[in-house]
């Protein structure tokens, strides 16, 4: 595979991962925490209403996990396409 | 030992620590001054970023906002954390690969245009200066309340401390002091929260306590109890949504994009050794930020509950259901002295009635109890964090710690902003435009002078805040969201984006957002010049001026892409530059430029 082609494939793999992560990012905050908040509030999580929990706690935890997930996956993809740093 | 002496000792010790760090981490090159020699460990950078990010407002005001807004304050919690996801996925690794010193420098190089760089410098300086005024004010307030020194002296002492470590150490000195400041501020924030959570729910972890049952044996969940208490007094339910869904959605989005576009945050990711470090470092930054941001909702809800319970001691409407004013606790008296808490006995019964008299149904009912209006005529939101330890009867050393924590939060953010301003002046304006041939030694001197000038300006504005100081947060985030973030993102993800498109987009985003804010808040915030009253009926589709940044960003994207389609594509070497920043390989080469 040519250098040029390899880089294009690498970029595509990256964009796919970014799209996946941003979908999750959108779902936990905008969908669960804002748009569907009333519906989810009918469910309770301990003493929390679920929608309220996503808006003030859950979305933040997911954000943290997402960044680490992205970083670890990207390190793998970097190596797979041999574009990693030494 | 009395509280004042103890506070002097705690605050003095933290200041001494910052100065020791400053001497130990002096900067000797421009690389060290601007980006700490790109040698900061990702976890250390994460911690410094967290301190940089969490300002006096996060430390002091946010829990108070949550206490009074309830669910609607979620916009700040999600907005100011979700931006880090955008930063980690869309900007930080690529800008680190680019490997230069400032954000405007990237925009200038990527769009092969000094004009683009200048627009970026103007946005950066406006956003950073408006932001730094609040920090200087925060320093003055913290000194005034806890050490009982005049406001101006407080600001001067704060300026002096920042001067020592920022002028001497630049980014290097700032980074290491920010790490110390993070430790101070997070300790000061969580200790009272743990005590209060334990007190109310029997669970020491505030994040879990907030979702637990009350410890009074009633078996009622804390949040349900709080909903009950506030609705009984005519307020909206704590967990209910009050704003419109569209506005909450756009405000959250504006704050997220704004966070990712604020130059003083972005530049922190220039300081790590590798591209992969930039990604993981954003994760660490968010871990350290999340510790405070997930504790704040607990602090807010519990403080509100304590406040309501202190005043409404018995059944609503019962003659002896309200606190007798003469028997009010000491913290109440202390805060009355500052004017942040005010009581007015409207019905002359010697008891305090705190309820929502704007709610007509409840006000009519209250009149039946012999209540003649809400008697807590002023409850400043900032009290919630500052008075929390006193309300919960915590020992004096905790109160002293809160003072040191508030100062650490304000100073660390001020330093980060001042560095962004001074490097824009010395690197983008002087080295980039006015005197490109300047030697490194002279540039380093220029950056130190610019830093000293920025500190003096920030201190002056902190002491004489322009009338619009409270309005400017919307402006800072609006500018970052509508102009800087889209330009950076398209510079990386759209290879064909050219100079014409980027400049047209930035100006569209900038002007549309500015005009929308000024339309409702007055031109340049001059009172009386607003074109329409700032109320939801007048807003375009119910979008508040604070929420418009996201719309401005969308306009920016649309205009930029449209213009780039009909103008000449960027030159070959720029397209190669974009291809190059997309791969991590070769990042070490960019260290010495």
Structure description:
Chain A has 3 helices and 2 strands; from the N terminus they run ααββα. Chain A has 86 residues and is mainly α. The longest helix of chain A has 33 residues. The radius of gyration of chain A is 18 Å and the shape is elongated. Helices cover 69% and strands 1% of the residues of chain B. Chain B is built from 23 helices and 2 strands. A two-stranded antiparallel ribbon of chain B has the order 1-2. In chain B, α5 runs antiparallel to α13, α8 crosses α13 and α18 crosses α19. The model of chain B has no long low-confidence stretch (mean pLDDT 89).
Keywords:
heterodimer, A: 86 residues, mainly alpha, two-stranded antiparallel sheet, 3 helices, 2 strands, 79% helix, elongated, B: 593 residues, two-stranded antiparallel ribbon, 1% strand, globular
Topology readout:
The complex is a heterodimer of chains A (about 90) and B (about 600).
Chain A: H1 3-35, H2 37-40, E1 44-45, E2 48-49, H3 50-80
Antiparallel strand pairs in A: 1-2
Helix pairs in contact in A: 1-3
Chain B: H1 3-24, H2 30-35, H3 42-53, H4 56-69, H5 74-98, H6 103-110, H7 114-146, H8 151-201, H9 206-209, H10 222-232, H11 245-261, H12 263-266, H13 275-311, H14 330-338, E1 341-343, H15 360-368, E2 376-379, H16 383-386, H17 388-391, H18 396-434, H19 440-463, H20 472-493, H21 499-521, H22 548-566, H23 572-581
Helix pairs in contact in B: 1-8, 1-18, 3-8, 3-13, 4-13, 4-18, 5-11, 5-13, 6-7, 7-8, 7-18, 7-19, 7-20, 7-21, 8-13, 8-18, 8-19, 10-13, 11-20, 11-22, 18-19, 20-21, 20-22, 21-22
